[in-house]
Amino acid sequence: MRFQNVDRVASFPLAIAVFLANASGARADESATTFAVGSQYDTSHVYVSPADVDRFATSFAATFGGTIGKRSIATVTPTASSTVSQVIQTPVGTVSLFGYTTPIPYPFGAERTGYLVTDLDAAIASARASGAAVLVSPFADPIGRDAIVAWPGGIDMQFYWHTTPPHYAPFETVPENRVYVSADAADAFVRDFVRFSHGTVQSDDARAPGIEIGRPDETYRRIRITSTFGRMTVLVTNGQLPYPYGRETTGYEVDDLPQTLKKAVASGAIVLVAPYESGGTRSALVEFPGGYVAEIHAPDSR
């Protein structure tokens, strides 16, 4: 979900046109739509203490570029609560930032992602039919409606819908949703999410390099999915992971990894895992002020 001034409504692409049609009461054929608007409308949900809101926002924007949205104080849950809310939009990914001044109502705080959908009720019905459980049924927020669903493996996501459709430029590079699941849940999660998203499994590597999850002497299963919602990497592990692997929910692609890390450190972030190479990509893990852990990667130019 996003809480900022939404005043940039332009001529929309087909997905937005469908959004408007659905908002007026029409329903697209579920078999023919993904309910996705585009990856630029997906947000990583970041929860920090109120004291860390400014520090995180400044560091994240300094690292990746982009803009920091207007700060607001709102109730964004269906029960009584209050949070500082802010959106940071960058060319490589967007964050919905929350700094609760009250206790956080359950199950908020565990959802990793917010997906803008064209029709909230239809998207919920499709997710449920695809195997998801609805944790929080649709509720009103200050600028639209939201719900939270859980997929096999305990992967929670928020769907959101805005009364006034937003219009954002596409990302320069699409971030990846990094999903850690057990071997017991992996096939069910992939099957159900692909069915819902109408996505495509781009690769399923049963012997991916273990260095990618902090286990350099081992291999693991890595599945990559693409859909209109964006990119997803499913990391199938036995759960025996060194810190901070498994804590990062999003991977951000940049052109120059050393320069990006330099900006991150200069703005208050900490490099938790130094750059390493795997499959033609160099990656690192960083902790931003407030505790948010992110994976950052770039093509290896050496």
Describe, in plain words, how this protein is organized in 3D.
This protein is α+β, with helices and mostly antiparallel strands and 302 residues long. It folds into 2 domains: 14-162, 2,3-Dihydroxybiphenyl 1,2-Dioxygenase, domain 1; 176-299, 2,3-Dihydroxybiphenyl 1,2-Dioxygenase, domain 1. The chain contains 5 helices and 17 strands. The strands form 2 sheets. Strands 1, 2, 3, 4, 5, 6, 7, 8 and 9 form a 9-stranded mixed β-sheet that branches. Strands 11-12-13-10-14-17-16-15 form an 8-stranded mixed β-sheet. It starts with 13 loop residues before the first helix and ends with a strand. Residues 2-31 have low confidence and may be disordered.
Quick overview:
This protein has 302 residues and is α+β, with helices and mostly antiparallel strands. It has two domains: 14-162, 2,3-Dihydroxybiphenyl 1,2-Dioxygenase, domain 1, CATH 3.10.180; 176-299, 2,3-Dihydroxybiphenyl 1,2-Dioxygenase, domain 1. The protein is built from five helices and 17 strands.
